[in-house]
TrEMBL record:
Entries under InterPro entries matching the protein: ASHA1/2-like_C, START-like_dom_sf
Gene3D superfamilies named in the record: 3.30.530.20
Transmembrane segments annotated in the record for this chain: none
Name recorded for this polypeptide: Activator of Hsp90 ATPase homologue 1/2-like C-terminal domain-containing protein
Matching SUPFAM superfamilies: Bet v1-like
Organism: Rossellomorea aquimaris
Length: 140
């Protein structure tokens, strides 16, 4: 079982890719901080200062300006793909796999995670296209 979210952002793939892997940039749209630059084989600590929370991700694959694959939350695999379009825009695709289909809370987990990915992509779009920081405003 997987979860898929997509959004078109009016910036080139290389700039959007850098927003994820550069610890100085990720705080403008997703986590408040990243312990280091994302590179294949590394374990990176992501922090949410607002919620006093942090977690590790294991970077499994990096294809420069094209794809990032990491694992988090136990056995969840996330693939972020950057599809460069001819007119300078990029479609960012987030696919999360590893949901337990026998879990009685599967539907609520899928919806909750989908909401999170769409919110992150919306914050990314705001940051990349307009230079605004919308992160940490989602209320549960």
């Amino acid at each position: 079982m997987n979860n898929l979210s997509r959004m078109r952002i009016q910036k080139p793939a290389n700039e959007i890719f850098e927003a994820f892997v550069d610890p100085e940039k990720i705080g403008n749209f997703w986590f408040s901080s990243s312990s280091e630059r994302w590179e294949e084989g590394k374990t990176v600590t992501l922090r949410y200062e607002e919620y006093d929370a942090e977690g590790d991700i294991d970077i499994k694959e990096i294809q420069e300006h094209k794809k990032i694959v990491f694992e988090w939350a136990g056995n969840h695999k996330v693939t972020i793909t950057f599809v460069q379009e001819e007119k300078g825009s990029t479609i960012v695709v987030v696919k999360e796999e590893g949901f337990d289909e026998s879990n009685e809370n599967l539907i609520s987990q899928l919806l909750d995670n989908k909401e999170g990915w769409v919110y992150m992509l919306t914050c990314l779009k705001g940051y990349m296209e307009y230079g605004v920081n919308l992160r940490a405003a989602l209320v549960k």
